[in-house]
Write a structure and sequence with these properties.
The chain is 32% helix and 25% strand. The protein is α/β, with parallel strands linked by helices.
């Protein structure tokens, strides 16, 4: 027998439940309002800091769970964003290509391989735009990837190549450097060229080694050890610490590297990075030298494929190196690698628009912004990494992007790629006290007179806050970064 309660009892129970829910919601709303009021009061007080006088800045803070704005100041105005541009580029890559997208670099034999081990023809290196061909994922061994290719060539039985080592970089165009980047910095590692076939972040590593030999030319450790560069070293040792100072640069359009100045005899070794001209030929040269070092005779040269040359579909694949978009995005945001961001941008152009160019990549970003609800007249984009001061976004655009990605199937990949307070990336030394460590996940950004910090904050009630703090035209960077950190701390405190 089923026992049935009287309707009046059921009704009373429902009413009681509704009242409890109403009271709970009322209490939640009151608590939330109190948190928001406290937040506004504390941030407004912080923004009276004299360091912000004449500084142009905007702030947007939203609750992702409740889709509510918690604080805003000039949140629709446009500001230079520096490396916060990488949030847009990497998010677009996750949205259009996915975390599992694979870069595939292939080594192929173009010709007949005889029984005696002679390849009558060429070796072709077919690039995919992969930025990961370096020592980063191989315990720091810069040449690990081309050495693995050489091993595969030898294992195929090839001992002599009658033709050339040909670099096919045509998945991207050969406009290596963004025209909007600062001309006086173009040989720096953070201005590394973008190319369809890249190696070692398209840089050479040069370490100055201290020796107690005053007046003598400084000893260099050059990695990789290759003939591709011509190094003119007039830097000498000095016993006077005050004289320590040197310059290292590459002449535009060449691979002539100059090192000038003085190096203190008691200094620690100092590693520098100079980017290269014509990255695909750089890799082809290094690969040819590794083959020869391992006993393979190469009769021809390292060379770049002609842009109009037809691809031969009948080549024999000898080996292939694969990396994923997920690992690419992790490096891009954690390390704030401009080179990686530009490779992603042209990858988007190649695979979504059919053209591996800067303009095609930016067209994809325009499409993504349209998906987020913003028209072209509401922002400006000139590159994928943020080095150009012509990039202009609003704090609202960035928190809208972060909110969108928080609900995205690949949103966790973006989250994991962001520097974490007190732990890694650009935040490893910031907000590192116990109550704030690991609570802030955000992308830093800095170029001259521009500092940005945007990302997510964990709260103790299960909500996630998205925030963007964009600051331009300031004097002291440290004071600006402290204000950004203090805003984040206030958010943690108010929603703890």
């Amino acid at each position: 027998m089923i026992c049935r309660k009287p309707i009046s009892v059921i009704y009373s129970s429902i009413v009681a439940f509704i009242l409890i829910c109403a009271l709970s919601f009322s209490e939640f709303a009151e608590a939330n309002a109190a948190d928001t009021n406290n937040l506004n009061t504390r941030i407004q007080l912080l923004l009276k800091n004299p360091s912000l006088k004449n500084v142009s800045y905007g702030i947007s803070i939203v609750s992702i769970n409740n889709t509510l704005p918690l604080f805003s100041y000039r949140d629709k105005d446009l500001f230079s964003v520096a490396s916060n541009m990488k949030l847009l580029t990497t998010s677009a890559a996750l949205d259009y290509l996915g975390a599992d997208f694979e870069y595939k670099t292939t080594i192929e034999a173009d010709g007949k391989i005889t029984a005696s081990g002679e390849l009558i023809g060429n070796i072709v290196m077919r690039g995919s735009g992969d930025p990961n061909l370096s020592g980063r994922f191989y315990n720091g061994n810069i040449v690990a990837v081309p050495e693995s290719w050489a091993t595969a060539v030898i294992n195929r039985g090839i001992r002599k190549i009658t033709g050339d080592i040909i670099a096919d970089d045509r998945i991207f165009d050969r406009m290596y450097t963004n025209p909007n980047w600062p001309e006086n910095q173009l040989s720096e590692w953070y201005c590394a060229p973008s190319c369809g076939l890249s190696f070692n972040d398209n840089c050479v590593d040069i370490t100055l080694i201290p020796k107690k030999e005053p007046g003598k030319v400084v000893t260099l450790l050059v990695e990789p050890n290759t003939s591709y560069f011509e190094i003119f070293n007039s830097c000498v040792y000095t016993p006077d610490k005050k004289e320590h100072g040197y310059a290292m640069y590459r002449n535009t359009g060449t691979n002539q590297i100059f090192i000038k100045g003085k190096f203190w005899i008691n200094a620690s070794p100092e590693k520098n990075w100079v980017n290269v001209y014509n990255p695909a030929l750089y890799l082809a040269t290094v690969f040819k030298e590794i083959l020869e070092k391992n006993g393979v005779t190469v009769c021809g040269n390292a060379k770049l494929i002609e842009e109009g040359e037809l691809a031969n579909p009948n080549l024999e694949k000898i080996t292939q190196t694969i990396s994923t978009m997920e690992q690419t995005i992790l490096v891009t945001n954690k390390n704030s690698q401009n080179f990686y961001a530009e490779q992603i941008l042209k990858t988007l152009g190649s695979h979504i628009k059919g053209r591996g160019t800067l303009d095609a990549g930016i067209d994809v970003l325009h499409d993504f912004m349209d998906k987020l609800g913003f028209s072209k007249n509401e922002y400006q984009i000139e590159d994928g990494c943020g080095l150009s001061k012509g990039n202009k976004l609003s704090p609202k655009i960035i928190t809208t992007l972060l909110t969108y990605m928080s609900k995205h199937p690949s949103g966790e990949v973006l989250w994991n790629s962001l520097p974490t307070s007190g732990t890694d990336g650009g935040l490893r030394r910031r907000m590192n006290s116990p109550q704030y460590k690991n609570r802030i996940h955000a992308k830093t950004g800095y170029i001259a007179k521009t500092s940005a910090l945007s990302g997510y904050i964990d709260t103790s009630n299960g909500d996630v806050l998205a925030f963007s703090i964009l600051m331009n035209n300031f004097g002291n960077l440290n004071s600006i970064m402290k204000i950004q950190d203090d805003i984040c701390k206030i958010l943690v405190d108010c929603y703890n």
